[in-house]
Amino acid sequence: MPTCPLCACPHSRHFHRDARRDYYRCDNCRLVFVPPEQRLSPEQERAVYDQHQNRPDDPGYRRFLSRLFEPLQHRLAPGASGLDFGAGPGPTLSLMFEEAGHPMAIYDPFYAPDASVLERRYDFITATEVVEHLFAPGRELGRLAALLPSGGWLGLMTKRVTGEAAFARWHYILDPTHVCFFSEASFEWLAAHLGMSVEFPGADVALLQKK
Questions:
Q1: What distance in Å separates the CA atoms of residue 125 and residue 123, rounded to the nearest whole number?
Q2: Which of 9, 15, 159, 160 could form a disulfide with 25 if both were Cys (CB 3.0 to 4.6 A apart)?
Q3: pLDDT tier, 19 (very low <50, low <70, confident <90, very high otherwise)
Q4: Does residue 2 form part of some domain?
Q5: Above 90 in pLDDT, residue 205?
Q6: pLDDT tens digits, residue range 95-152?
Q7: How far is CA 34 from CA 53, 168, 186, in A?
Q8: Which sign does the torsion angle of CA 75, 186, 116, 34 carry?
Q9: Cα separation of 39 and 22, whole Å?
Q10: pTM reported for the whole predicted model
Q11: Residues 6+ away with beta carbon under 8 Å from 154
């Protein structure tokens, strides 16, 4: 069985199979994931992302992002600085925070690949519709948490796994770039592993605070 890309546990069970891929669930952190040999190449990934039509001037897209923006912004001190990780081809969440008075940096491996921003410290870090794309979420999220001070926030937005029957008919697994699927248990494991607390202010939002 494949090793879990979140907690590195070698024990997982086959969870689901569709016409294109297999999905395994980790016995330890409950992450559901696609095995490495069934992931897209970087070129194939980029081709999918290039089709995205997200724009900062789209009110609907801003409403979508507000599910993370609003609960996190309420928890931030005035002027707190942030990083939007995985900003995509049309960075918008960073603009929303800048409009609210928060200096922002952005990083995206395809569209804003300046890795020097990953060497700075931030009061908060956001990743919206990102963690489901990560090949090594344990390593990547650990690296982000290390950039936060005590009391800093990691705001994540992704749809969560509920049960096996719902997973089988879930539209979220149809996107070939989605390879990791978190449940509340997965986020609770992650928070404990990183020395953080976690709360779920919305159906798709997890806010982790460094202790």
A1: 7
A2: 15
A3: very high
A4: no
A5: yes
A6: 999 999 999 999 999 999 999 999 999 999 999 999 999 999 999 999 999 999 999 9
A7: 26, 14, 15
A8: negative
A9: 10
A10: 0.97
A11: 124, 125, 126, 127, 141, 144, 145, 148, 196, 207, 208, 209, 210
Is 98 inside any structural domain?
yes
* E-only strand ranges, 27-146: 32-33, 82-85, 104-107, 124-128
- Measured CA to CA, the distance from residue 42 to residue 37 in angstroms comes to 13
Of the candidates 3, 57, 54, 59, the residue with the CA atom closest to the CA atom of residue 28:
3
Tokens at residue 149, please? 């001070």
Helical axes 184-194 vs 137-145, angle rounded to 10°: 50
Q: Is the pLDDT of residue 177 over 90?
A: yes
Place of tokens 């879990």: 4
> Which of 31, 46, 55, 44 is closest to 131 using CA atoms?
31
Question: How many other CB atoms sit within 10 Å of the CB of residue 93?
Answer: 30
- Strand-pair partners of 23: 16
Would residue 4 count as lying in a domain? no
Q: Is residue 6 packed enough to be buried (19+ CB in 10 Å), middle (13-18) or exposed (0-12)? A: buried
CB 95 within 8 A of CB 66: no
Residue 105 in tokens: 């940096």
Count of the separate structural domains present in the chain: 1
Give me the CATH number covering residue 80.
3.40.50.150
Residue 3 lies in a domain: no
